[in-house]
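Risk mitigation, structural track. In case the binding assays with LLP fail to produce interpretable data, a predicted complex structure has been prepared as a fallback.
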Amino acid sequence: MAELLTENLGVNAEGHLTIGGADTLSLAAEYGTPLYVMDEQEIRKNLRRFHESIDKHYGGRGLVCYAGKAFTCLEMCRIVASEGDGLDAVSMGELYTAVKAGFPMEKVGFHGNNKTDEELHYAIEHGVGHIIVDNLSELRRLEAIAAEMGAVPHIMLRIKPGIDAHTHQFIMTGQIDSKFGFALETGEAFEAVKESISCENVKLVGVHCHIGSQIFDISPFEAAAGVMLDFIAKVRDELGYEIPGLNLGGGFGIKYLSTDDPKPLEAYMERVSAVVKEKCSEHGLAQPYIYLEPGRSVAASAGITLYTVGARKEIPGIRTYISVDGGMTDNPRYILYQSEYEAVAAARAGEERTEKVTIAGRCCESGDLIGENMPIQHVDSGDIIAVLATGAYNYSMSSNYNRVMKPAVVFVNNAEARLGVRRETPEDIIRNDV
Ligand code: LLP
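Fallback model:
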């Protein structure tokens, strides 16, 4: 029996793969393929894991700001809003989506290492909760724009805490080479705080750090929280200003393969809040309001992608290619990062996966693969296959390469399906052509 990764996936009496109780073959028949399917209950469950652990371990003094870059659309914004959670947005497009969905903008954090004046203006105009400032030129532009608008937006400063979580044993020394944020070691972050608190038209309400993505270990997060609180204490001691908010970013790892073993999401806040409390009592600081920005860990396990198999090409002694009707245009994560996924034949999901194949996309690019050496049941032309855990950074990173039309996104909720994003049409492809 194939490893189905999460409890929201199942096999029904006909042997078909189900997601959120809905039969994937029926979804494919009704909506066509390729098709992204998102399970609403799984999204809600993942969000609750975070906000309930803030309640349990930190007295509810925090806000989960779902990182929309993982996956967003109007319906996703509505789901996040209805859970009472916030949003991390990084562009005019994401802000606009939130506004149009009626998202409570005071719960939105606006990120980006190169925000335009137009975006800053738009963010202030729509009352975003906080703007996470990345660099001094942005701080100065923001101050000028806010003054012109007669506003005092709340800001956080994005700090590089000097932790590289992507090594076997994370490194805590040395400045990480990153385009994002102010470095701690060089004094750059301290200078940025100094300048921020001297500004009349912005109010510094927090410091932010994000140490990476798909991180399995909790200790780099604990270390980052510790470093940030030491910095808050230093600012209080030397500048007499106590920064009230601490944004710890996202980056929590998820299970893509049956062999992956991420820590339960609840464990994160349990351990990190212990560090926060300890550091606060050590420095005599008030415990800060905490923000988390999980993206992948909310959306990935909620999504699967359904494809129809076209050609099956066996190259004796070399490999078997299974070509599908999508590929790098709907999932560029293999060609970008050689990310691995599990796949199953939707009609025989309960059966053992007896073959190892290369799943190839339809684009004119040899690297256009969904994966190599993927275990799967025997499949041939016309079969539907499901690639699992595609809910994050698939739809959001999709493209129109080869003028391929983007798939639809369907939400399922307790076996009921509804359209979230329509499938693109040829008219969409030429919509902006003149
Ligand atoms: N907050 C900030 C400031 C971030 O830069 C990110 C992700 C997140 C939160 C959310 O991180 P998550 O919880 O999703 O790991 N395209 C890549 C992932 C890029 C992540 C960029 N920043 C991928 O497909 O793996």
